[in-house]
């Protein structure tokens, strides 16, 4: 909320785009009010920063570390932890590798099964098409004498030939 520069009471925005103090009844332009409020806020921030700086540099209290110093300290702590717990860390890494190896082997095995199944289906389809072709050629060979130029021969559709193959296979 905006405050009056004169009496520090809350201001009200009027329809004329001006602020009016309810206590002292003075009118202010928006720029005046904003600059006054910004100066007050800036003054409070400076005081707050000075207070924090005094607390940080107080004797007996450690000073604040920079980012580089924090990185160096964390690296040193990590190295100390590693040398203390080296055997545990190595054991965990070995177990993790075993787990990953097992997962990889399972994935490869499933992939091989899928590809073999696809290849088997492709082979079956090729064999089926080859047999259909042979059956169609046989049909043409035996019905060759029936062909004439005036009459168009009717050849059975491949679906019926496929049904014949399936029927012969089941017998």
Question: Would you write up a description of this structure?
Answer:
The chain has 171 residues and is mainly alpha-helical. It is 67% helix and 5% strand. A three-stranded antiparallel β-sheet has the order 1-2-3. α3 crosses α4. The model has no long low-confidence stretch (mean pLDDT 83).
Helix content: 55-70%
> Can you summarize the main beta sheet?
3 strands, antiparallel
The tally of strands reads 3
Tally the structural domains: 2
DSSP strand content = under 5%
Key attributes of the depicted protein:
171 residues; mainly alpha; 3-stranded antiparallel β-sheet; 67% helix; elongated
Lay out the secondary structure:
Elements: E1 11-13, E2 19-21, E3 27-28, H1 30-56, H2 67-84, H3 86-142, H4 158-170
Helix pairs in contact: 3-4
Short description:
This protein has 171 residues and is mainly α. The chain has 2 domains: 46 residues; 104 residues.
């Amino acid at each position: 909320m905006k405050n009056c520069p004169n009496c520090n009471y809350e201001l009200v925005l009027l329809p004329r785009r001006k602020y009016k103090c309810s206590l002292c009844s003075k009118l202010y332009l928006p720029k005046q009010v904003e600059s006054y409020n910004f100066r007050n806020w800036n003054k409070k921030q400076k005081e707050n920063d000075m207070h924090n700086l005094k607390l940080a540099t107080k004797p007996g209290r450690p000073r604040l570390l920079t980012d580089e110093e924090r990185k160096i300290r964390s690296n040193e702590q990590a190295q100390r932890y590693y040398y203390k717990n080296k055997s545990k860390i190595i054991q965990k890494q070995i177990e993790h590798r075993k787990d990953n190896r097992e997962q990889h082997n399972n994935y490869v095995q499933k992939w091989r099964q899928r590809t073999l199944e696809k290849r088997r289906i492709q082979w079956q389809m090729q064999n089926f098409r080859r047999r259909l072709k042979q059956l169609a050629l046989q049909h043409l060979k035996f019905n060759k004498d029936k062909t004439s130029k005036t009459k168009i021969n009717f050849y059975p559709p491949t679906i019926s030939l496929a049904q014949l193959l399936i029927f012969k296979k089941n017998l």
